[in-house]
Design a protein that fits this description.
Layout (H helix, E strand, L loop, with lengths): L1 H10 L6 H5 L2 H8 L3 H15 L6 H8 L1 H19 L5 H30 L4 H30 L1 H23 L16 H5 L14
Helix pairs in contact: 1-7, 1-8, 1-9, 4-7, 5-6, 6-7, 6-9, 8-9
C-alpha cells in the first residue's frame, strides 16, 4: 500500500513536470499571447527557483512524517494548479509555473521518494523496483489521458480536472493510507539483509579452537 500510494504521488507531480507542462504549452501560448522565447525564459527561471523547494523537504519529512508532508504538498499543488487554470497574464503565468515546478517536480517528488526507504530495509531494492514500475505505468496512463482532455476540452479544463484530483483524491488518500514507518502500524521492521547488516555477504564465521 505504501509503495503504491507513493508511486501515485509521483505521478501526481505531472502538472509541475516538463512533460506535463508540454501537454498545455501550445494552447497556453496561444491563449496568453506569449512567444516561445518568453515561455522558455519563464520555464528556465521557474525550474531554477523551483528546485530550491527540494532543500527543506527532508527535514519536514523527518519532523512531521511522510503522511502529513505528502498530504500538505498534494493539497497545495492542487490549489496552485486550479489557480493556474485561471491565469490571463504574463506575471500570473510566471508565478503559477514557478509554484507548480516547486511543489510538483521538486517538493512532492522528494516526499514521494522518501516513503519506501522508511518502510523497507532488506527488501528495499525490490520495493524500489516495484515503485519505479508503478510510477512508470502511472505516467504512461496519465500522459495520454490528460493530453486527450487538453485536445478535446482545452488546457484550462484539463488543469481544473488535474487540480481537482490532487485536492479531492490525492491529498485524502495520503492522509488515510500513508504512515511514517511499520512501527506506526504496530508492525515489526523487517531485518536488514546480510550485506547491510554486516557489510559483507561472506563475513567469515568466528570460531574457537577446541580445548585440549
Amino acid at each position: 500500500v505504501q509503495v503504491a500510494v507513493a508511486a501515485l504521488a509521483m505521478v501526481a507531480t505531472l502538472p509541475g513536470r516538463t512533460q506535463g507542462l508540454g501537454l498545455i504549452t501550445e494552447p497556453l501560448l496561444r491563449d496568453l499571447g506569449l512567444t516561445r522565447v518568453t515561455y522558455a525564459e519563464i520555464n528556465l527561471w521557474a525550474t531554477l527557483l523551483g528546485s530550491a523547494a527540494c532543500i527543506s523537504i527532508g527535514n519536514l519529512v523527518d519532523r512531521f512524517g511522510s503522511r502529513w508532508v505528502l498530504t500538505a504538498l498534494s493539497l497545495a499543488l492542487g490549489l496552485v494548479v486550479l489557480a493556474f487554470a485561471q491565469v490571463h497574464g504574463f506575471v500570473a503565468a510566471a508565478i503559477a509555473i514557478t509554484l507548480t515546478r516547486a511543489l510538483g517536480q521538486s517538493a512532492l517528488s522528494v516526499a514521494s521518494l522518501s516513503v519506501t526507504p522508511q518502510w523497507f530495509d532488506g527488501r528495499l531494492p525490490r520495493a524500489m523496483a516495484v515503485y519505479s514500475v508503478l510510477l512508470s505505468v502511472g505516467f504512461m496512463i496519465a500522459f495520454p489521458l490528460v493530453g486527450s482532455f487538453v485536445v478535446n476540452h482545452g488546457w484550462r479544463a484539463a488543469w481544473v480536472v488535474v487540480g481537482g484530483f490532487l485536492v479531492l483524491c490525492m491529498a485524502p488518500l495520503t492522509a488515510i493510507l500513508i504512515r511514517r514507518s511499520p512501527e506506526d502500524c504496530g508492525l515489526a521492521r523487517e531485518p536488514a539483509g546480510p550485506s547491510r547488516a554486516t557489510g559483507s555477504e561472506h563475513e567469515p564465521e568466528s570460531f574457537e579452537e577446541p580445548r585440549a
